[in-house]
Every structure is written in C-alpha cells, then in structure tokens.
Amino acid sequence: MLHTGSCHCGKISFEVEGDFKDAIDCNCSYCRRRGSLLAFVAKDALHLKTDPADIETYRFNTMKIAHNFCKVCGVEPYGEGTAPDGKPMVAVNLRCLPDVDFDKLTINKWNGAEH
Ligand SMILES: [Zn+2]
C-alpha cells in the first residue's frame, strides 16, 4: 500500500510503500521528547519528493542514524540508518502519514534508553 507523508508545513513530502499494522514507541532520550511512532522499511520503499537541500539532519550518540527534519517547521518525518545486514533502512514516523489510523496500530514498546 502506498501512503503519502509530509512534515507539518509540507516542505518535506514523500510517498512510502508499506502495510503498517505495527509501530515502535521508543523511550530513548530523543524519541521520548519527539513522541514519534516508527515503522521500518527498506530505503527504496521511500519516494522523496523534496529537494534534499530543504532537509536538515540531526545525529547523536553513535551518529549512525540520520534524523531528517524540516528546516521550516522542525517536524521529523523519517530517519535513515542501516539494518544489521547492511541494507539501507528508513524509519518512518507514522504520525506524519495522515491516512494511518493510530487506534488500529499495535504499539510495540522499544527500550531504546537501555540500548
Ligand atoms: Zn516542514
């Protein structure tokens, strides 16, 4: 299924392929502040419709994950990293996909604070 997603102001917009039934609610020092619900897809499932120059990136701790956020509104629709097998992955913030019904998601808590 193809979903449309964006930051709040729309400067970052994209389509993403995925059948999202589960989401990860992480409690690390970053996610607990941000309040996102994450789902992981292969990088080629995300079709960005935005000039990369409009995207800002934040990295912390191991610096391995690129947290991509909008320079205008500050919302982070997705992050980028690498799966254990080396494949490029995207962590989509399901809260930035207007057609996702959060009440139908199974929320899996991830103890990122201790990883
Ligand atoms: Zn924005």
UniProtKB/TrEMBL annotation:
One Gene Ontology term of the molecular function aspect: carbon-sulfur lyase activity
UniProtKB keywords: Metal-binding, Zinc
Ranges of residues in domain CENP-V/GFA: 3-111
Pfam families: GFA
UniProt keyword Zinc, yes or no: yes
Presence of keyword Iron: no
InterPro entries, alphabetized: CENP-V-like, CENP-V/GFA, Mss4-like_sf
UniProt record similarity statement: Belongs to the Gfa family.
PANTHER family in alphabetical order: CENP-V_GFA DOMAIN-CONTAINING PROTEIN, CENTROMERE PROTEIN V
Protein name as it appears in the record: CENP-V/GFA domain-containing protein
Source species of the chain: Asticcacaulis endophyticus
